[in-house]
Amino acid sequence: MKQQTEFNQDLIRFLDQATTPFHAVEQMAQRLLKAGFREMSEAEHWRPEPGEGYFIRRNGSSIIAWRHPEQEAAVNQGWRLVGAHTDSPCLKVKPNPELHRKGYFQLGVEVYGGVLLNPWFDRDLSLAGRVTYRSKDGAVCSTLLDLRRPIAVVPSLAIHLDREANSSRTINAQTFLPVLMGQTDEKPDFRQLLADWLMREGTGNLAQVLDYELCLYDTQGAALIGLEQEFLTSARLDNLLSCYIGLQALLDAPAAGAGQVLVCNDHEEVGSLSACGAQGPMLTQWLERLMPDVDNRNRALARSMLISADNAHGVHPNFADRHDDNHGPLLNRGPVIKINANQRYATNSETSSIFRHLAAQAGVPVQSFVVRSDMACGSTIGPITAGELGVRTLDVGVPQFAMHSIRELAGSADAHGLYRVLQRFMAEPRL
C-alpha cells in the first residue's frame, strides 16, 4: 500500500503539471533527463550506445523514449513497446478569438476531439499551450505558457430562461461555448494579452506574438476521493494516466536484452493522422534509423510486441445496461484487456494470453471489455500502430468513468497494478 500511495501522489503531481500535450511531453522529458536519459535531435546523426537511455520529441507534443539494446539482442529478442497518447478532448482558442458583446470580453473556442460538453459549464478555467513569437533580433521562437490561475468561465444560462435544460438541452458549440474573460469598454487584442503574459513570466526578448496553440483547462487539481480514497479524479486521465504508467514502467524496469520503448503520440483524439500522430511516420522513422538493415529490422519486429495503453469504460452503476453483462470492468479490479472482433482494438488471443501470464506473475487481476453488440466501438493507437509497424499488439487500459469529461474518475489501485505488469513486460526476454 505504501508503494501504491507514493505512486499515486507522484501521479497527481504529474497530472496537475501536464495541462496540455506540450506540457505533458515536457514533464516526461524532465523526468527522463533526471533518470539519466539523453535527448537526441531528429536533425542530427545518432550514435546510441547499448545500455543507455535516450528520447526524442516531435512537435513538442509527442515523445519516444527507449533503452538502447545491443544490435544482436534486438534482433534475437525484439522490442518491448508501450504506447499511449498525450492529447485529451478540450476547448481550443480560435486564431481570431476576440468577441466583445454587451461590454463583456469573450474568446471564441473550437472543440477538439469528442468532448463531453456539459461539464465544461461553470468551471474555473485557465489557459495553457504553446506560443510562437518573433524575438527582438528577428528570430522565430516558441515557448510554453501556463497561466496556472482561473481567468475564464463558460456560464450556464439560468434555469428560468431555459426551462427545458434538464430534459432536452442541446449544446451549440458555436454559440454556447465562447468563454467569458472579463468586462471591457473596448475589444482587447488577444495576441497582445499573450505578449504581456509572456513578458511578465520572463520572455524578455519578445517583439510580437505570431501564433499559438492554446487549450482551456479546469484549474481544480487531481485528487484522491471516496470514503477510503478508492478513487482518483482529475482532468485528462484519458490518456495521461497511461503516459505516466508507461513512463514509470520504463524508468523502473530492470535491464533486459530486448529494447525497452515508450511512445506517446499526439492527435489520437482526432484520428492520429499527423507527422507526430500514431498514423504518421514517427515511430517507423525512429526504428529505421536504429535498425537500417531491413532483414534485421523485420526479424526484430517478429519478436517484438506493443502494448497500447488507453483507458477503458468501467461499468457505471447508474448505467450498467450500457455494457455487455459478461464484459463489464469494475474500478479497482485490475487493468482491462480490450477486445473487438472488427479490429477497433488490436488484441488477439496470443497477445492477451501473454498479458494474462505477466499479470499472474505480478499478482495483478485482469478484466476484459467487449462493447455491446448493438453499440459502436471506439478505437486506440493500437490498431493504427500495428498496421503501420506490423508488430503484435495488445490493447489494455485502466477502467474509468466520465471518459472525455472535463473531470474523469478512475480507481486508485488500478494505475499501480498496470504499472507492475508493464514493468514485467519491459524486462521479459522472450515473448
From TrEMBL:
GO terms for biological process: proteolysis. Pfam families: Peptidase_M18. GO terms for cellular component: cytoplasm. The keyword Protease applies. GO terms for molecular function: aminopeptidase activity; metallopeptidase activity; zinc ion binding. Keywords: Aminopeptidase, Hydrolase, Metal-binding, Metalloprotease, Protease, Zinc. Its cofactor is Zn(2+). It is an enzyme of class 3 (hydrolase). InterPro entries: Peptidase_M18 (IPR001948), Peptidase_M18_dom2 (IPR023358). Its EC number is 3.4.11.-. Belongs to the peptidase M18 family. This is M18 family aminopeptidase. It comes from Marinobacterium iners DSM 11526.
